[in-house]
Design a protein that fits this description.
CATH class of the largest domain in chain C: Alpha Beta
Strand content of chain B: 5-15%
CATH topology of the largest domain in chain C: D-Maltodextrin-Binding Protein, domain 2
Chains: A mainly alpha, B alpha+beta, C alpha/beta
Order of helices and strands of chain B: HHHEEEEEEEEHHHHHHHHHHHH
Oligomer: heterotrimer
CATH topology of the largest domain in chain B: MetI-like fold
CATH superfamily of the largest domain in chain B: MetI-like
Number of domains of chain C: 2
Number of helices of chain C: 20
Structural class of chain B: alpha+beta
Shape of chain C: globular
Strand content of chain C: 5-15%
CATH architecture of the largest domain in chain C: 3-Layer(aba) Sandwich
């Protein structure tokens, strides 16, 4: 842990402090009141259950919420996945075994969504596959490159770091709306194209452009986040190593290859896993930007899930299909993470021996 | 090529402007344009009048048509420079546009009647003006004040409870030994990996059963128990010496007192990071509120923005103005508390 | 720092909670969810205000939402019992299980029976006599043109000289106008399965087979229409932006209002909106439905205001619906919004449209004639209990054909299998 406390400017501004302290006391009053009030509940309880029982009291409120809003939904997910009908209430849903899964997985040719019974799910899978491959690889390369540049001894580093990071704070709706305004038929880019006499492009309504748009917007919105993680990884590499390498006459390329990359490996692994899990779940910004269109070109897996569960697909809402699809995705994700972990563990063993 | 590779592989350089430095600055400047461009474009567009916003190709800065009040016409009329057939240019006001033709009137001599002009012989007269009405009107007409209030309620209460509940659990996990401890920890850690969208539909049923549909409670409560938050706080509290707790116990302090008078103040950096994260998470939440909230007056800002852009006849000026307003809190956090976010991400790898 | 932040947050929450508490102390709330536009909102709000002045114990809240919300989010809300008290919907029989029977509550059920008979039949697919709904408007689909653009292009409006203008003739004229005036789009048709039906039936589609089952894969007329319609997109007559799908896509209505579209196929409900948004900015008008090989028909339709059975306040809901249904109020609604009412006494008495705009009056005339010329096939389709899944299946799959994701044959198969799935699901639930 390298979290450092931001202790404020210290005592130098004593006059200002003298002025703000009464205000501070006043402002922290509700906080004290709340905590003391909770103390009135917890202290008598301590007499009741003893010190040994206290950790449970600290755990219970959070754990209860966790069970209700995380554990029970997962169990319900299984209930939905193995039952049929259109109702949301499990009592009205007949048990149908693996039928939801077999419906989802029935394909003559898994590479051609048109040959599948639920073609929209497989279109989502295919679109998501392409999205994940392009997004994750370009994200890692770009984030690594940007972090390396930002790690150099340059002016206004804080400013540039902030600039790259800023979009990660924006909500997916805002991100998509801003970009829609840039990309649409009469948007900024087409205005510029028109200005220099080039033909305009209907970015959001041509399948390949629309796919690229969702990828670029996704990149734009998360590049800063991963750059920051890699930057932290870079800065954690002891400068001593580089100094020693320079003394040994190592070239910059060698320094990068033999010091930076190996030591950055755990960080890159985290970046890979996080960006992969995030990319598989791509949905929100694409929904606002293109709503899956044109046709189903930007309809990703979660789009299918959302439509099946809430908005309706052919045959109306089908929460069973939706949850079965999420379970398939979850299985793939967990398996992927485990395999990755296993491979990287083996690889690092190889390296260290 | 060698310069580019040298730039990449070089990590700490001397202070002299090398070609690799130039390339770095070039890359960063280009990046700045791409990263900030869409936001700035949204901001300047949000100050454009409806006429200026539909103009193509668009202008970067908000220019509004210059208008003039002409006797006999209720609304102010836009001014145009018209090239007359004899080659002279006159400044006339447009009464209406009919297809390829403009029906004009001379503001100085309205009694002279309508003068017809071909579109391509006219040029609109513009002035720099910020269309503040894009901000004022949606706030008055479309309940955006209510949406802001809802977003503030959700963000504030969820953040408060997130801090309280998760710090309690983290405290128990880091400063006690009890049966079930490792099981709880492991379940929470696994849940970090599981994608949140997996349980969307069942969570909706739970909310429905609790009667929290179309209720801000349904947006706030399910987000509170956060594995990420527990992880972040526990890691930090583990670094605090257990002797502090023991000493306080010897002095007769209650466990609750130890928690909030000793551990919490010492965990301030981690709590501050979590607070900032939580504010960002809740302010930006979209999909879940979209599903839970059904009544316009309960909408949060993000849901309202999405609804607004789905309406027929989207007033892009209004939409962009409200988008810009919704950016303000996160921009504020970004400007003043960036350091906390940066350390938070760097230490936990979580967003 | 954090302590103050937390405290500030507590204070803020308390303050806001207090303000929420105050607003919660109001009279019985009746919530209306409707996809109203333009003047409809103003008129409806004035009706609400007048009602509330007479009934201070009731507070009617109007939620104006996009049509997609009614289509997509509302059914789930109704199933979970958290929906609004009154809805405006086009899926009249489909949502009927959720309707409230207002018969015990309305002041004079006989008035409803006498004037809203067709609505009652429509809203009771099981043959009951529940009073649940009244039409916001009866609709018929048909095209609008921008006559000003025709004049400037020097192209004659085909319907001026002939009562039997084909789609191909309109296409040629609209393209000529587009090219001569430099506007962006020649023709546009709303992205909706319902909007396809009139043109498709004109070309020769029947949609329903002899047993009344929608068998589109074997419907030669429908196939011919889809081929023509897809052709309109591949040859650039219609902009891909409307039918490629996607939320916030360009819609023909906005383009038509902005004078950017020559020929726009929609329906009579747009008249009020055009009167408000175009006015006399250019000469717009409705023209008769284009002809295909078979006939020249529009498609009937309509939206109702329906009371929902899950309401906590059936008495107050019924009181508001009764007020809305009363002749002067209902007349006001129709006359000011230029929407066609369904009210027998009103139809006999005739309406005084609240507009002097020649463009609007002419369009109202044209659509009145279109309404009396609806083909029996369209009528049978409109009242068929099997029509539900047809709308979305045709809309979504034809979009996919247009953008090239599905071949024509694949698209036809998918349309049929979507319909089959939908009808099977409806039958089993």
């Amino acid at each position: 842990m390298t979290l450092t406390a931001e202790r404020g400017p210290g005592r130098q501004a004593s006059t200002a402090a003298a002025l703000t302290r009464p205000l501070g006391v006043l402002l922290s009053l509700p906080y004290r009141l709340l905590m003391n009030a909770l103390g009135l509940i917890f202290e008598p309880l301590q007499r009741l259950v003893g010190i040994k029982g206290m950790p449970y009291l600290f755990v219970i409120p959070n754990l209860a919420l966790f069970i209700i809003f995380a554990i029970i939904p997962i169990l319900l997910n299984l209930v939905y996945a193995f039952t049929g009908g259109t109702s949301l209430f499990p009592a009205n849903r007949p048990f149908i075994g693996l039928q939801n899964f077999s419906v989802l997985l029935s394909c003559d040719n898994f590479l051609d969504p048109n040959s599948c019974l639920v073609d929209l799910f497989w279109r989502g899978v295919m679109n998501t596959g392409v999205y994940v491959i392009v997004e994750v690889s370009s994200l890692i390369l770009l984030a690594l490159f940007t972090a390396l540049v930002l790690n150099r001894n340059i002016r206004a580093r804080g400013f540039f770091r902030g600039v790259y990071f800023y979009p990660t704070l924006l909500s997916s709706v805002v991100v998509a709306l801003l970009w829609k305004w840039v990309l649409q038929r009469n948007g900024l880019i087409n205005g510029a194209l028109e200005g220099v006499g080039m033909p305009t492009i209907n970015f959001l309504f041509e399948a390949d452009w629309a796919r690229l748009a969702t990828i670029i917007v996704g990149l734009w919105a998360s590049l800063g986040f991963y750059t920051l993680i890699i930057l932290a990884g870079l800065q954690a590499i002891p400068a001593l190593l580089y100094e020693a390498a320079v003394i040994d006459g190592a070239s910059r390329r060698q320094q990068f290859q033999y010091i930076t990359l190996p030591l950055l490996r755990p960080t890159l692994y985290i970046v890979f896993i996080l960006s992969f899990v995030g990319a598989v779940q791509v949905f929100e910004h694409a929904m606002v930007l293109t709503d899956g269109g044109p046709g189903t070109a930007t309809s990703y897996i979660m789009h299918f899930v959302y439509n099946a569960a809430f908005a309706g697909i052919a045959g109306g809402r089908n929460v069973g299909l939706a949850t079965a699809a999420t379970l398939l995705v979850a299985v793939v994700l967990v398996a992927f993470t485990l395999v990755q972990r296993w491979i990287s563990r083996n690889a690092s063993d190889d390296y260290s021996t | 090529m060698s310069a580019a590779t040298a730039m990449l592989f070089r990590t700490r350089g001397k202070r002299q402007l090398h070609i690799t430095d130039m390339l770095s600055y070039l890359y960063l400047t280009l990046g700045t344009l791409i990263m900030l461009g869409p936001v700035l474009w949204g901001v300047t567009s949000s100050f454009k009048t409806p006429a200026a916003i539909t103009r193509f190709p668009p202008e970067f800065f908000p220019f509004a048509e210059k208008t003039v009040v002409v006797e006999g016409y209720e609304d102010p009329l836009p001014l145009f420079d018209v090239t007359m057939e004899d080659g002279t240019v006159r400044r006339l006001a447009q009464v209406r546009r009919v297809g390829l033709e403009r029906q004009m009137i001379d503001p100085a001599a309205p009694e002279a009647g309508i003068i017809k002009a071909k579109m391509d012989a006219t040029e609109i007269v513009q002035e720099f003006r910020l269309a503040w009405e894009n901000y004022a009107e949606p706030l008055q007409q479309f309940d955006f004040v209510v949406y802001f209030r809802n977003s503030i309620v959700v963000t504030a209460s969820a953040t408060l409870l997130t801090l309280l509940l998760n710090s309690m659990l983290a405290f128990a996990l880091s400063k006690y030994r009890f049966r079930g401890q490792s099981a709880i920890l492991n379940i929470f850690l696994i849940m970090i990996l599981l994608p949140g969208a997996v349980t969307l539909a069942p969570k909706y049923l739970v909310i429905t059963s609790l009667g929290w549909n179309n209720n801000l409670l349904g947006v706030i409560i399910p987000t509170l128990a956060s594995p990420t938050a527990v992880f972040l706080l526990r890691q930090y509290m583990l670094t605090l010496p257990d002797e502090l707790v023991d000493a306080a116990r010897v002095d007769g302090a209650s466990e609750w007192y130890i928690y909030w008078r000793i551990i919490l103040p010492l965990s301030m950096p981690a709590l501050a990071t979590l607070a900032i994260f939580s504010i960002m998470w809740r302010w930006n939440d979209f999909l879940w509120p979209l599903i839970v909230l059904t009544e316009n007056r309960n909408f949060t800002l993000q849901v309202a923005l999405n609804l607004f852009q789905g309406q027929y006849d989207v007033q892009w000026g209004y939409l962009l103005a409200m988008t810009v307003l919704s950016l303000l809190p996160v921009t504020f956090i970004f400007a003043f508390l960036q350091k906390y976010i940066a350390t938070g991400i760097a230490t936990t790898g979580l967003k | 720092m954090l302590r103050k932040l937390v405290s500030l947050v507590i204070l803020l929450s308390l303050f806001v909670a207090a303000s929420v508490q105050v607003t919660a102390q109001e009279p019985v709330q009746v919530r209306v969810m409707a996809d109203l536009v333009d003047d409809q909102i103003t008129v409806f709000e004035e009706i609400i205000a007048a009602f509330e002045a007479e009934n201070p114990d009731v507070d009617v809240l109007l939620d104006v939402v996009p049509y997609e919300t009614i289509q997509q989010a509302l059914p789930l809300q109704l199933e979970t019992g958290v929906g609004p008290d009154i809805i405006k919907s086009t899926d009249i029989p489909g949502l009927s299980p959720y309707y409230l029977d207002m018969r015990p509550y309305v002041a004079d059920p006989a008035y409803w029976d006498a004037n809203f008979g067709p609505t009652i039949t429509m809203a009771n697919p099981d043959g009951g006599d529940r009073l649940s709904a009244l039409y916001s408007d009866l609709t018929v689909t048909g095209p609008f043109i921008n006559r000003t653009l025709f004049e400037q292009a020097g192209v004659a409006v085909p319907s001026d000289s002939s009562d039997h203008v084909t789609w191909e003739e309109w296409e040629a004229a609209a393209v000529a106008v587009r090219d001569a005036t430099g506007v962006e789009f020649a023709m546009g048709l709303d992205r909706s399965g319902h909007r396809l039906m009139g043109p498709a039936i004109s070309v020769g589609a029947t949609y329903l087979d002899e047993e009344g089952y929608p068998n589109l894969a074997a419907d030669e007329g429908f196939r011919a229409f889809v081929e023509m319609f897809v052709g309109f997109h591949t040859n650039g007559v219609m902009p891909i932006d409307i039918w490629a799908g996607g939320d916030g896509a360009r819609n023909g209505r906005d383009e038509f209002i902005n004078g950017n579209l020559v020929f726009y196929y929609s329906g009579n409900w747009q008249i009020g909106s055009f009167a408000a948004n175009i006015g006399d900015g250019f000469d717009w008008e409705a023209v008769p439905n284009p002809c295909g090989a078979q006939t020249c028909t529009g498609m009937p339709g309509g939206a109702v205001f329906a009371a929902i059975g899950a309401t906590q306040h059936p008495e107050e809901v019924s009181r508001f619906m009764d007020y809305l249904a009363s002749e002067p109020v209902y007349r006001q609604w129709a006359e000011r919004t230029l929407l066609a009412p369904q009210h027998i006494a009103l139809a006999e008495a005739g309406l005084n449209w609240n507009t002097e705009l020649p463009q609007a009056l002419k369009s109202l005339d044209v659509f009145a004639r279109e309404a009396s010329n609806i083909s029996p096939i369209a009528m049978a389709l409109f009242t068929s209990p099997n029509i539900g899944p047809v709308y979305n299946a045709t809309r979504d799959r034809i979009s996919q054909i247009i953008v090239g994701e599905l071949s024509f044959e694949e698209g036809m198969e998918r349309i049929q299998s979507d319909i089959d799935t939908g009808l099977a699901a409806a039958a089993s639930s």
